[in-house]
TrEMBL record:
It comes from Candidatus Infernicultor aquiphilus. Keywords: DNA replication, DNA-binding, Primosome. Residues 4-100 form the DNA helicase DnaB-like N-terminal domain. Pfam families: DnaB. One of its GO terms (biological process) is DNA replication, synthesis of primer. GO terms for molecular function: ATP binding; DNA binding; DNA helicase activity. This is DNA helicase DnaB-like N-terminal domain-containing protein. GO terms for cellular component: cytosol; primosome complex.
Length: 185
């Protein structure tokens, strides 16, 4: 297929195998349909399931899940091979951009090909093209970022904090809101 690079897909999966916590970073950015390779798509689906069940993401847990659920082709040898191809995890964001670019191009190609073959009409083509998000428009905010932001806003919402000389007291109390009863003894 012209709009695919399975090496990029392999490196993305390899990075996730090396650093399972990277999945939190991409949870809202990509999904299994962004992969063209059936193998990498299956592995990514397993990673999604493990994460949703709060199970550590690594070669052993993925291999065990695949074995327990009769998913073929996802053994330890394959996972270690994928992991060993990663040049550097530090370039993960660049790999991710490339994966999203190829995925975007494949979606456009599929829609235009369906239109060319008469499978869809021009209205469905237009609707489909409008629904496809540009790679830059994909939400980059993870659940963790959202929670941290909410906690920061909650901290800012206090009406009263002690002067800077009492930092420890501010940390303990988090400041006070209107209506809080304060007893000093």
């Amino acid at each position: 297929m012209a709009y695919t690079n399975t090496q990029i897909e392999k490196v993305i999966i390899g990075c996730l195998l090396l650093k399972g916590n990277l999945y939190e970073k991409i949870i809202n950015e990509i999904n299994c349909n962004d992969f063209s390779s059936p193998l990498y798509k299956r592995i990514f689906q397993i990673i999604e399931r493990l994460y949703s069940n709060n199970i550590k993401i690594d070669n052993i847990t993925i291999s065990d899940y695949a074995h327990s659920n009769n998913i073929s082709g996802v053994g330890l040898a394959v996972l270690y091979d994928i992991q060993n191809i990663v040049p550097t995890v530090n370039a993960f964001d660049q790999y991710l951009k490339l994966l999203k670019k190829y995925s975007y191009e494949r979606k456009i190609l599929k829609l235009t090909e369906d239109y060319r073959l008469g499978k869809i009409n021009s209205d469905k083509l237009e609707d489909g093209l409008n629904k496809i998000k540009l790679p830059e428009e994909i939400n980059k905010e993870t659940n963790k970022d959202i929670i941290l932001k909410a906690l920061d806003e909650a901290e800012k919402g206090t009406d009263f904090k002690f002067p800077d000389d009492f930092d420890d007291l501010n940390k303990i109390t988090g400041g006070f809101d209107r209506g809080d009863l304060i007893i000093v003894g």
